[in-house]
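testing teh design pipeline on a random one, pls ignore if ur not involved
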């Protein structure tokens, strides 16, 4: 509420209401699965709030192949 004014009500078709109690829990459940998948492929992950950074040192063709497999797994996870 700002100066005794409220936002209009809207029907949500996806997502979680901003400021909800369950929102952060749902995000953690969602993102933890992503982390587990990527760590399987040796990808280092750094998180802060809602940002995720991925790190993988590429030295040879095997590392490139590992990254490709990780991205394929990530894509399948997103489709599922």
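output:
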């Amino acid at each position: 509420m700002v100066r005794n004014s409220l936002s209009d009500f809207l029907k949500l078709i996806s997502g979680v209401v901003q400021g909800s109690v369950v929102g952060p829990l749902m995000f953690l459940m969602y993102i933890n699965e992503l982390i587990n998948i990527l760590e399987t492929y040796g990808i280092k992950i750094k998180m802060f709030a809602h940002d995720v950074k991925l790190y993988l040192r590429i030295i040879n063709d095997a590392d490139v192949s590992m990254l490709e497999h990780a991205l394929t797994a990530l894509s399948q996870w997103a489709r599922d």
